[in-house]
Write a structure and sequence with these properties.
With about 350 residues, the chain is an alpha/beta fold. It folds into 2 domains: about 55 residues, 5,6-Dimethylbenzimidazole Phosphoribosyltransferase, Chain: A, domain 1, CATH 1.10.1610.10; about 270 residues, Nicotinate-nucleotide-dimethylbenzimidazole phosphoribosyltransferase (CobT), large domain (Rossmann fold). About 45% of the residues lie in helices and about 10% in strands. The chain has a 6-stranded parallel sheet, with helices on both faces. Helix 10 links the parallel strand 5 and strand 6. Helix 1 runs antiparallel to helix 2 and helix 6 runs parallel beside helix 10. About 50% of the residues are buried.
Length: about 350
């Protein structure tokens, strides 16, 4: 995978941004977004085409340890809600004209064949990683490959900007373990309340995850080892999807805590992927701020969200469009006949 950087293009693109009819730097982070998109697309006139969000869904064996406030059946119930168009992600995607695809990566439920769902199920949920690894190496590779295949198909439809969301009761536990194992950050700093745990439940969740990390610490070293030991099928599929999106030079919209934990694994596999990614918001989930700091990235929004589903990606997308629009359409000082700032 190439690093998205061209010294000559970088200089000309920065000059184009700076020559717009505004004080230098006055559009703030939008200028950085416009610059990064131009570099990704290797263009002074980039465009966002056929935006798409994929919601991957999967169940988690770790829920048997009481780490979630909601029962496992909520996963498939929410998938049906996505398919019916009634979830927050559906609303925001409709508002911003973003296509949405829902993927069964490993839900413990048999969906009717008639529903508009991609069936990429690896198994009916992962195993309880307190007792055995969440998935086998072949299952992990299968999930990675299926995520890549889905993105390739979407890319061929003309999409060049893709976001990733998820649904899976127990997946904040999985993401916390992945984050700690992949970054070395203590598990206590990675664990959050997920779907709404109280203090006692949070202590229990932390204890369970600490025991699980200790159990496997001598056996998991590589990013794929970590993913297979602690991941969910929806997280693994998202990892494969992100890698393929970067390979195809697509703009990647990373949603919240779960999606960022998936991205951390991807980053450990291929650091150059960071050049293609935008981190759409900072979640209220406790570990998200720390994982963003670890990756040295800046979130676009901070709205105290903690829903998942890709909602932060859908909400941030219009700001990427605004960045592209000002780069392409805003007048320069020369074209508008506006005097530039006087030199001191």
């Amino acid at each position: 995978m190439e690093k998205v950087l061209s010294t000559q293009l970088s200089s000309v693109l920065r000059q184009k941004i700076d020559s717009k009819t505004k004080p230098l730097g006055s559009l703030g982070y939008l200028e950085d977004i416009a610059f990064q998109i131009g570099i990704i697309q290797q263009s002074l006139t980039p465009s966002l085409n056929n935006p798409h969000i994929i919601v991957f869904a999967g169940d988690h064996g770790i829920t048997a340890e009481g780490v979630s406030a909601f029962p496992q059946e909520v996963t498939h119930q929410m998938v049906l809600n996505f398919l019916g168009g009634g979830a927050a992600i559906n609303i925001f995607c409709r508002q911003n004209k973003i296509d949405i695809t829902v993927v069964d990566a490993g839900v413990n439920f048999d969906f009717p064949k008639a529903v508009p769902l991609i069936n990429a199920k690896v198994a009916k949920g992962t195993r309880n990683f307190l007792k055995e690894k969440a998935m086998s190496a072949p299952e992990c590779w299968q999930a990675l490959d299926r995520g890549a295949e889905i993105v390739e198909h979407i890319c061929q439809s003309g999409c060049n900007v893709i976001g990733f969301g998820e649904m899976g009761i127990g997946n904040t536990a999985s993401a916390s373990a992945l984050m700690s194992a992949a970054s070395g950050i203590p598990i206590e700093d990675c664990v959050g309340r997920g779907t709404g745990l109280n203090d006692e439940q949070l202590r229990h969740k932390t204890k369970v995850l600490k025991e699980a990390l200790l159990k496997w610490q001598g056996e998991v070293h590589s990013p794929l080892d970590i993913l297979a030991a602690f991941g969910g099928f929806e997280i693994a599929m998202m990892c494969g999807a992100m890698l393929k999106a970067a390979q195809r030079k697509m703009i990647i919209l990373v949603d919240g805590f779960i999606s960022t934990a998936a991205f951390l694994i991807v980053y450990r596999i291929e650091p150059a992927v960071k050049g293609y990614a935008f981190f759409c918001h900072q979640s209220q989930e406790a570990g998200h701020k720390k994982i963003l700091q670890y990756l040295e990235v800046k979130p676009i929004l901070d709205l105290n969200l903690r829903l998942g589903e890709g909602t932060g990606a859908a909400l941030a997308y219009p700001l990427l469009q605004s960045a592209v629009n000002f780069l392409n359409e805003m007048a320069s000082f020369d074209s508008a006949g506006v005097s530039k700032k006087k030199d001191p």
